[in-house]
Amino acid sequence: MHSSTIFQFCFLLQLFATALSASSSQRCHPDDQKALLQIKKDLNNPTALSSWQTTTDCCRHWKGIQCDRAKTHRVNFLTLDHIEDPLPIPASIATLPYLNTIQLGPANFTGPIPRSLLSLTNLNYLQVTSTLLSGTIPEFLSQITTLTDLDLSFNHLSGEIPTSLSRLSHLESLNLGFNKLSGPIPDIFNSFPNFTFLWLSSNQLSGKIPKSMGNINAVYLNLDHNKLEGDASMLFGSKKNTSTLNLSHNKLAFDLGKVEFSNDLGSLDLSHNEIYGNIPEQLATVGDMISFTLDLSYNNLCGKIPTGGALANIGASAYAHNKCLCGSPLPSCTRRRSF
Ligand SMILES: *[C@@H]1O[C@H](CO)[C@@H](O)[C@H](O)[C@H]1NC(C)=O
Ligand SMILES: *[C@@H]1O[C@H](CO)[C@@H](O)[C@H](O)[C@H]1NC(C)=O
Ligand SMILES: *[C@@H]1O[C@H](CO)[C@@H](O)[C@H](O)[C@H]1NC(C)=O
Ligand SMILES: *[C@@H]1O[C@H](CO)[C@@H](O)[C@H](O)[C@H]1NC(C)=O
């Protein structure tokens, strides 16, 4: 009786020790190691991947690699940066079936984004940024319906933004900034209920802002440095959670006096447009006065500038080159008529 209890105790101890060592060792799955070595080979064994050695565990010691610690213990995170040779993105990336996050660049990848990524059924986050990638945004990306974040910024992409991106219903963040994209912004924004981050800055996008963009509650919305025209008032609203809105350097024309601002607003840049009307008093009540940044210069605004609150520390340059703005920090409104 007594010895069997000791036996049971030892057995449990053994079991516990085995479980402990299995969880702490984090051994690279052999299939993942094989796939990663193929990627390294496809990239001509670059110095950036010199830590990828079979003598060490890919989950713990290979640069840019992470494994899922909780469940699968498979590679779920891949970063490839500072690849100096101009080479295509390795199609072998798709042989890591548990990938959740792919971050490529800065690197001299010449593209294209491999179609093989379609086989990755756990992919949430795809970033290809600061590469030599050119051509159009591939249509097949819209079939990776698990995507929540798509970042293709700082490349040489051209052509139009594909309407098919509307199929990415889980999308929360889209960054296509600093490319050469042209044509209108497609009317796809009713498709993304959880959208919070949109960055289309510094492209050659033209035409009107689509109505559906007014239905998203984005925290960051940057459309600056394009050729957008017409109304942008649908992007505003006191019920939105916008903290950064940058529409500068476009050809937008609408009545600013009719909009309401998000209470969370921390940065508003509408400079270099054709916006008219007055500045609503409510703008002084948003955000906090310490960190609020504002630029309304180079527009057609008119009337008395509201004072106090968030606007207390805003200098004259934020209001420069408008039609007839007046009052502190610009010259007083009564003097205006004597010019
Ligand atoms: C890309 O190639 C250029 C020229 O060889 C090199 O100077 C640069 O460092 C490379 N970029 C990266 C991110 O490796
Ligand atoms: C939106 O977010 C909520 C909460 O995180 C989540 O339950 C829901 O599935 C998301 N909807 C979509 C379409 O991704
Ligand atoms: C969004 O803004 C509303 C009203 O201003 C506020 O009640 C809500 O808590 C905000 N939501 C988030 C996620 O910050
Ligand atoms: C708006 O974007 C431009 C270009 O990206 C940048 O220079 C400017 O500082 C931004 N405005 C604000 C208020 O952040």
Automatic annotation (TrEMBL):
Q: Does the keyword Repeat apply?
A: yes
Leucine-rich repeat-containing N-terminal plant-type domain residues: 29-68
> Where is it chiefly localized?
other
Q: Point out the signal peptide segment.
A: 1-21
Instruction: State its location(s).
Output: Cell envelope
| Entries under Pfam families matching the protein | LRR_1, LRR_8, LRRNT_2
Please provide the record's keywords in A-Z order.
Answer: Leucine-rich repeat, Repeat, Signal
What's this protein's family per the entry? Belongs to the polygalacturonase-inhibiting protein family.
Q: What is this protein called?
A: Leucine-rich repeat-containing N-terminal plant-type domain-containing protein
The organism of origin for this protein: Stylosanthes scabra
